[in-house]
Amino acid sequence: MRHVLKKGLLSMGAFAFVTAAAFANPYEKFEGTTIVVSWPALSHFKKAEDLVAEFTEETGIEVEIDALQYLKLRDRQLLEMSKNEGEYDVVSWVVMWKGEYVSKGLLTPLSQFYTSGSLVDPNYDLDDIADAYLQNGGVVGGKKGYMPGKSGAMYGVPFGAETSILAYRKDIFEEQGLKVPETYDELRDVMQKLHEAGIPALTSRGKTGHQITAAWLLHLAPLGGKIFDDQWNPVINSPEAVEAAQVLREVAQTGPKGIPTFGFGEAAAAFLQGEAAMHLDTLKIAAMSRDPKLSKIDGKVGYALHPVGSRCGSETGGFAAGIPANAPNKEAAFLFLQYMTSKAGDQRMVELGGDPVRISTLKNNADKFDEYAVVAEQLPCADPDWRPLIPEWNELNIDVLGQALTEVITTDKPIQPIMDAANEKARAIMEREGYYLWQ
Amino acid sequence: MTVLTQSRKPRFAAETMTPYTFITPAILVILGGLLYPVFMAFYLSFYDWEIGRDLAKAPFMGVDNFVRMVQDPQVWEVLWVTLRFGFWTITIEMTLGVALALLLEKPIRGASFFRTIFILPLMVSPVVVGLIWRYLFDARIGWINYYLGAFFGIEPQVWLGDADLAFFAIVFTDIWQWTPFIFIIVIAGLQALPSEVVEASTIDGANWYQQVFLVKLPMIKSILVIALLMRLIDVFRGLEVMLIMTGGGPGRATELLSLHIYNRAFDTQQLGYASAISVLLILIVFAISTAILTMANPMKSKSDV
Q: With contact defined as beta carbons under 8 Å apart, do A285 and A295 qualify?
């Protein structure tokens, strides 16, 4: 009995060896494998489900998707990735979590796969992916730990990455005889004029915590502000930072009702339902405004560059995807990532109503969609230091700034003392975490 | 003499052991399901740990987390929010619940219909309650703003984005959901009252007021205490509804103690510090429960059984 079994196993082994030598395509080896993908329940990713189905059809690799509200991903992924053996083969993170994930040793460096000729598609062309997206979402450990730099290593590829552009209602601007704002002074002027005309001006996130901080950061970069100076001293009470908070207060006063309760979804909905004249946030709004299920304003939206203050500076954010250190099917996961972000995959995402990450895709489709030319022009301004993507950022983001800025928009207290107090709190956190030991 | 003790001893042991044998499974469940997590919370409160790091290598903090907690104004702020929330909700719920029970106690026409209607909110899961009221209170699309505007001409309010209004909103929601709980417990108590006593008081000429406050309510005192105790513990435990309606915002206006612990533990990944605050929570709930039970213990009369 045992003998027979042994023999059977041997012959099976030999069979496997023979087939291994005769694979017809790079995917065949993984046919029948099921990979589990954790990503957000956002429009871009819903559209991507069709491309996932095409991937399965073409490669025989089954994909199971676990989609969650995007801010809930972190809890779930951290739990899963800290097990000895995880469920997830692919995780998609908001760029601000990359430092934490890598410092905890939870991700697989992609160099492990780029050394394998049987996995890497020679036509993939990594350089074609917008550099701002790749560096911001996928590369960890460069300058200051999160910016481009020689010490950095690649852990993820951008998928659903974004920068910010201004979306405005062409019909309302025409009707009111307004010029599309190019600078912050013009933007603030337009907000006042729209408000006086009884039209809610600029929609914005404003919910306590991560959301309101994101809204403020959108104004901080172009107004010339930063979170830290080069010695990790917090500068969130600088004149620029206070001015950004002042802009945010004006946005809340002149925008649609309810900004202090808006997350990304609510802020976008206010614009898409025609209850705000402008949306100054992620470029994702463009594809969303073309989706009849989400939008009542298709065809009425124009796009322009993120207004400039003392410099041009737009958001670097959105998502990148990588492979957990404890993923059961790492190679199949790599093939999946490569397929989704390949030139053909990127083009399919555009056709399905998602957002591209490649410069060539933006160029090839520039005549189809109004915003693509704007995005291509905006990308060089995407600020890699838009927010410090350090592990401590979560606490600063939610607990310090998220609280202080709520006070800014829900009260009319002077802003400088609020930001001074926040700066002290931020300094205490950095002190606790040992950032000043080198000084 | 020796024979006597020998024959008695095993019988004595068997008799006393039987009840303990029967409660052993329950004790094991409590040990595993309740005491172990509480013990772990204590243990974790002495460490600095984040999910994703090795617990065995987490740095030992001593009592640092507790020192930080005592000095942390945010903890006292949310404790104050929790106490205010508890005061308003429990006071109004107890009053309303008892009043409704007294109203619907008598077999009036349609009483069973109203009873069912009143109990419905209790059946809804807290997550759904949070969602329903979040959208009802929504500034842009909420029905509350719509009807206040349509019938009373009131300007639309940002209910969940203003510190006072948001606090009102969560108190209102809690009252909506939990008044039926008081109602159902009190009405059960009232119906179990011996009719002789009530009849006797009627014959003695007691008016309605006297009957309620001198006869009925004192007789269901122990039930009222249990209801109060459960609501009080719920206030300190409650999290889901606020998490969904406001997330604790704006600022910390609606951040109850347990939600604060949740945010600390998962948003900012300070599980050790969050555990230290949970220890505070356990102590507070323990103190309140003990105080109420000492003042009015429903089991007191039976304690010698």
A: no
Is B191 touching A (CB cutoff 8 A)? no
Higher per-residue pLDDT: B193 or A268: A268
Cα dihedral B51, B57, B60, B65 in deg (nearest 10): -10
DSSP state of A281: E
Average pLDDT over residues A53-78: 93
Q: How many residues does chain B have?
A: 305
Using CA coordinates, name the residue in chain B closest to A429.
Answer: B268
Which pLDDT tens digit goes with each residue over B182-194? 998 998 888 888 8
Between CA A245 and CA A413 the distance in angstroms is 12
* Residues 58-97, chain A, touching B (beta carbon < 8 A): 75, 78-79, 81-82
pLDDT at B298: 61
Among positive and negative, which fits the CA dihedral A190, A194, A199, A204?
Answer: positive
pLDDT of A115-151, one tens digit each? Answer: 998 999 999 999 999 998 999 999 999 998 898 899 9
Cβ-based contacts of B250 with chain A (< 8 Å): 208, 260-261, 406, 410
Distance CA A16, CA A4 (A): 18
Q: Between B139, B248, B269, which is nearest A208 by CB?
A: B248
Rounded to a whole number of angstroms, the CA Rg of chain A reads: 24
State how far the alpha carbon of B81 is from the alpha carbons of A261, A393, B78, in Å: 19, 27, 5
Task: pLDDT band for A1, please (50, 70, 90 cuts).
Answer: very low
CA atoms within 13 A on the CB side of A208: 28
Nearest beta carbon to residue A104 from set B53, B156, B158: B53
Domain architecture of chain B: domains with CATH: 33-297 (1.10.3720.10)
Domains, in order of start, for chain A: 32-162+317-381 (3.40.190.10), 164-314+392-432 (3.40.190.10)
Pick from A205, A208, A394 the residue to mutate for testing the B interface (most B CBs within 10 Å): A208
Cα atoms in the 13 Å half-sphere on the side-chain side of A362: 19
* A211 touching B (Cβ < 8 Å): no
Chain B residues whose beta carbon lies within 8 Å of the beta carbon of residue A198 = none
**Which residues of chain B are modeled with pLDDT < 70?**
1-14, 296-305
CB contact under 8 A, B251 and A407: yes
Judge: A257–B249 Cβ closer than 8 Å, yes or no: no
pLDDT of residue B10: 54
For chain A, percent helix, then strand, then coil, each to nearest 5? 50, 15, 35
The answer for residues whose C-beta is within 8 angstroms of residue B174's C-beta and 6 or more apart is B85, B89, B93, B238, B241
Instruction: Read off the pLDDT of each residue in A331-350 and give the average, rounded to a whole number.
Output: 95
What is the helix (H) or strand (E) element at residue B136, kind and residue range? helix B126-136
Q: Does B252 touch chain A (CB under 8 A)?
A: yes
- Give the neighbor-by-neighbor strand order of the sheet with A156-162: A62-68, A34-40, A90-94, A317-322, A156-162
| Touching A: B residues 210-229, CB under 8 Å | none
- What's the gap in Å between the CA of B77 and the closest CA on chain A? 13
ipTM above 0.90, yes or no: no
